[in-house]
Amino acid sequence: MSYESLPIAALALAPPIIAIALAMYTRQVLVSLFAGVWIGALMIADWNPIAATALSMDWIVEVVRSPFDTKFLILIMFMGAGAAFIYKSGGIIALQNWIGHRVNTARDSQILTWLIGIFIFFDSYTSTIVTGNATRELSQENNTSREMHAYVLDSTTSPVTTFGPVSNWIGYQVSMIIVGFEAARFTAEEVGITAFGLFLQSIPWNIYCFLAFFMVGFISITQRFYGPMLNAEWRARKEKKTRRDDATPLSDITTDVGEPSEKNPTLINFFAPILSLLVVGLVSMWWLGGGHQSGVDIATAFQETDVALGLLYGSFAFMAVGMLGAVGFGTMDLEEASDTVISGFKTMMIAAAIIVLAWSIGHAAEQVGTAQYIVDVMVDSSIPGSFLPLLIFLAAMFIAFTTGTSWGTMAILTPLAIPLGYEMSGLSILPVLMGVLFGGAIWGDHVSPISDTTVMSSIFAGSDHIDHVTTQIPFAMTAAGVTVLMLLLYAVGVTSPLVLLPLAVVLTAGAVIALNKFDARRKNLPEVMPTTDAIDNGEIDVDAIENGSKTDGTRINGRYSFVESIPLTAVGIVIAYLCLVFGFMTLGF
C-alpha cells in the first residue's frame, strides 16, 4: 500500500508517532507499541477494527517468522542465560574483588564503561551486552544512575561499530552503498571508486557519531550533566537511588536469577564466557561471510556474513561456557545450572516482547508508506544541491526516529541519496551524503523508544526504558544540533572535514558546559556532580543546595583531578582508537 491511497497522506506518520507519543506519556511500552501496530493495521483494513486486530496478529507472526528475527530472539535468550551464569556463579563478585578498589567513584565507573565499549567494536549488540554485564554492578556500587549507565552504553556502541575498523555495521553500510550504485546505474569502475572506498571517505563526515562518542567521554570525565540526567545523577549521588522509586527496569537480574554464589568466585567465570562470545561470534561472522576462502578479505567477509547466525553461535557459546564454568568450579550443581538457564531466559521475556512489537511497528510503517512519505516531502522541498547533505541528515533522523531502525533507514535512503547526489553535484558529494546519512540514522536510534538497540541498552543497564530515552534525548539533540550547524557551514562553502570536524568538537564541548551551567543554576543543583563520599562526609552543603541559599563560600560542586590513572588511560586509549580509525580511513584516498 502507498501513502497516496490514504485519505490524508500525512496519516502515514500515525503508527510510529502514536506509538512513540503513548510510550513517552504513559510509560507503558508494550501497550503503546501494540497501539501503533493496530493503528497501521486499521488503515490497511479499511478502518475495520476487527479485521485490523486480526491483521495485527498476522504482522506479529510474520516478523517473528523472519529468519533474521527468529535467530535474534533465540540469541537474546541465550544472552540472558549467559549473563545469568556470570552473575549467579560469582563472576561479578570476582570482578569486583579484582578491580573494585580501582573504580571508586561514579565517574570512574562511567569512564570504564566507555572504554570497554570502545574495545568491542565489531557488533553493537555484543558490545552492549558485554559492556553492560561487565560494568553494571560496579556502576551500581558507585552510585551511577541506571539512566547514565544506559546512555554510556547506547551512545558508545553504535558509533564505535559504525567506524569499525571491522564490524558487521561496516559490512552492511558497504552493501547499502553497492545498492546505491545500482540505483544510480553506474559501476565502481566507471566512477573510479569502490563502495568500500566510498565508505572510508565518508567516515570524517559522520559528524554526529563522532560527537555522540565524544560527548559520552567528555560528560563522564567532567561530570557536567544537564536535562533530566542532571536530576537522575543527583538522586543517585544524594539518595543512593540509582533508579526512580517507581521505575520499571526491563530486566533485573537480582530479582530474576537470585543472589550470586559465594562458594568459589573466580575471574574465569567472568572472562571465559565473554571471551567465548567475542571469539566465537567474530570468527563465525568471518566464516559465514566466506572469510576462510581464498581471495575473500575481512571487509568482504563481514559484508556478506549472516550477522544473526554468527551472533547466535556466539551467544550459545556464551551460555555454554558460563554453565561449564559454574558447574566445573563447584559454584552450583547441575540442577541449579539448569534452573539458571531458565531464569536467564526469563530476564529477557519483556525485552523480547518489546523487540517483537518494535519490529511490528516497523512493518506497519512500511505497509502504510511512512518512510516514502517522509522522503517524498523532503525531496519535493527543492533545496539547492549544497544543502542536500542537510536534507539527507534530517530525513535520516526522522525516518529512524519514527521507524526505530537505523539499518532500515539506511536501506531506504541510500538508493535515493546516491543517485540524487550524483545527478545534482557529482561524485564529490557522495562521501558527505553517506556520512551524514549514517549519522542521522543512528541519531534516530538514540532517541526512539521503539529502537531495538535502545531497548538493549535499557536491558543491560537495568534501566527503566522510558527514563533512558528521556535522559538521552537532550544529549543526542546537542550533538545533532552541532551537526546541523556544520552542514549549514558546508552549504555556504566550508567544505573541508579537517575544519568542520574539529570545530564541531569544540562547539560541542562549549555547548555541554553552557547547558550544564544554565540547567544547574535553574534547578539549584551542582554544576560538577560531586561524589557520594563528598556528600556523606559533609564536604558538600546539601541543605544550601536544596534551599537555594548558596553563597560564594558554600561548596556545592564536586572536585576531580584530571591527572589520575583512569581519565588519563581513557584519553590515551581514545587517541589510539581514533588514530586507528583515521588510519583505516586513509586507505580510501
TrEMBL record:
The keyword tRNA processing does not apply. Signal peptide: none annotated. It is a multi-pass membrane protein. Keywords: Cell membrane, Membrane, Transmembrane, Transmembrane helix. Residues 160-490 form the Na+/H+ antiporter NhaC-like C-terminal domain. The chain crosses the membrane at residues 6-25, 32-52, 72-99, 111-130, 205-227, 267-288, 308-329, 341-361, 387-413, 425-443, 487-515, 565-587. Pfam families: Na_H_antiporter. It is found in: Cell membrane. GO terms for cellular component: plasma membrane. The keyword Cell division does not apply. Its main location: membrane. This is Na+/H+ antiporter NhaC family protein. It comes from Natrinema thermotolerans.
